[in-house]
Design a protein that fits this description.
This protein is an alpha+beta fold. It is built from 13 helices and 22 strands. Keywords: Aminoacyl-tRNA synthetase, ATP-binding, Cytoplasm, Ligase, Nucleotide-binding, Protein biosynthesis.
């Protein structure tokens, strides 16, 4: 499993702080120190609001919840904006994926979303129905639904010798697919985020070895995102590229795909390939619905051959380059987590992807000072904290806290505050305890 990447901005010096302070207007009110702590956010400062009711006409649970809870805003069919809370979730998901791709030697790049149509004509895929077509000056162009047509000629300019292989590059970028019927909220859109990685190998055997390493990294991604227990490595059609591809399918009653599970053998099959197997074997398997949260393909030499990407091996014999591609829809994964791990009226984010770890909720203004102490204690223990300092009814605060769905909740009411205590709830396990602020951080770790 990949490790968090160390590093970050440099340390502020006293002189820097002095310079910042001297340009503050004399009439400006100094913000309390806690507002400058990177791990505590006052809810009153967020560009965020919840809705009492889910959006009308939205059938998918993930979109109903995410819009109602103020994580995303729908612009049009299949296109969403990410609000502050939603963007924090997306960035956390991307961070996990980035760490795992780094762990298998992936190198991050960023390629254009605007592609010359000529590249797609080179591979014979220019007539795909999902292509958004446009112009780049007078030249025909498309918005990229995937990047084989860009990454292959790009790497051909960077790899000069067989000794440079294997090579693997990935990006996290928005894709565009002209879906006839975008549906299921974030699960199937016309513009969406994706991590797409491409690997290049001198032999099929080398590709096979790397392919298995990436499959294991994918398992780590979904485990860290809270879906490991329900996600199955699933055999699916390889299309024009190979006999099989492999999907990572997360089981849910709300899934779009049908898969068959053999629990004894640890095998999962996509419905699209069951006609390749004896009917009695399929009948003995469990049929379930699922959401595809990732896929990996062995592309063979098709794309390298189309662009003339060949290299001489150690004997000087020119060899076609074997490629693999590995995709995870980042925004789709956010939608899948919301779909699978929430209820109809409440989010329950896993800690690794939650926008904040802890939600501190004082029931009235008289408890705000104790709430600030609780927030500071949690932040000092390494937690990110959302402090609900809004002047709204206690019932509205609790309803919003359910919708927002942070994994740790601290409620401060008059009775517990009078006893010098706060009420802590782990929303994943359901455990609730009353503790003093000094013991709050320990309670979150229990």
């Amino acid at each position: 499993m990949g490790k968090p990447v160390a590093g970050g901005p440099g340390i502020l010096t006293d002189s820097m702080i002095t310079v910042v302070d001297t340009v503050r207007p004399h009439h400006a009110k100094r913000t309390p120190l806690m507002a400058h702590l990177p791990d505590v956010t006052r809810q009153s400062t967020l560009a965020h609001r919840t809705r009492r009711e889910p959006p009308a006409g939205e059938p998918s649970r993930n979109a109903r919840l995410l819009e109602r809870a103020g994580y995303v805003g729908k612009l049009m069919a299949g296109v969403y904006s990410y609000l502050p809370l939603g963007l924090r979730v997306l960035r956390n998901v991307e961070g996990i994926i980035r760490e795992e791709m780094n762990s298998v030697g992936g190198q991050e790049v960023l390629m254009p979303a605007l592609h010359p149509l000529a590249n797609w004509e080179t591979t014979g895929r220019q007539d795909m129905d999902i292509l958004f077509r446009t112009k780049s000056g007078s030249a025909d162009a498309v918005l990229g639904p995937t990047h084989e047509e860009v990454v292959t000629p790009l790497l051909a300019t960077q790899v000069a010798s067989y000794k440079d292989l294997p090579a693997s590059v990935f990006q996290i970028q928005n894709k565009f697919r002209n879906e006839a019927r975008p549906k299921s909220g974030l699960l199937r859109g016309r513009e969406f985020g994706m991590k797409d990685m491409y690997s290049f190998h001198l032999s099929e055997a080398d590709l096979e070895e790397y392919y298995e390493r990436v499959a294991e990294a994918y398992r780590c991604v979904f485990e860290r995102c809270g879906l490991g227990a329900v996600t199955h490595y699933t055999y699916a059609s390889g299309g024009a590229f190979s006999e099989f591809s492999h999907e990572f399918q997360a089981v849910t009653p709300y899934g779009e795909d049908t898969i068959y599970l053999d629990h004894g053998k640890g095998i999962a099959l996509n419905k699209e390939i069951i006609d390749r197997y004896p009917a009695d074997e399929i009948a003995a398997m469990e049929q379930v619905t699922a959401i595809e949260v990732g896929n990996i393909f062995k592309l063979g030499t098709r794309f390298a051959d189309a662009f003339g990407f060949r290299l001489p091996d150690a004997s000087g014999v020119p060899q076609s380059i074997h490629m693999g591609c590995y995709g995870i829809g980042t925004t789709r994964l956010v939608g899948a987590i919301a779909e699978i791990l929430s209820t109809d009226d409440a989010m329950v984010w896993p800690e690794n992807v939650a926008p904040y770890h802890c939600h501190v909720v004082p029931m009235d203004a008289g408890r705000l000072e104790l709430a600030e102490s609780a927030a500071q204690a949690l932040a000092a223990a390494g937690h990110s904290v959302l402090l609900d300092d809004r002047a709204v009814r206690a019932g509205a605060k609790l309803a919003d806290a359910d919708l927002i769905g942070l994994p740790h909740r601290v409620v401060i009411g008059a009775r517990t505050a009078a006893e010098g205590l706060v009420e802590y709830t782990n929303r994943v396990s359901g455990r609730t305890v009353k503790v003093p602020v000094a013991e709050l951080a320990a309670a979150t770790a229990a």
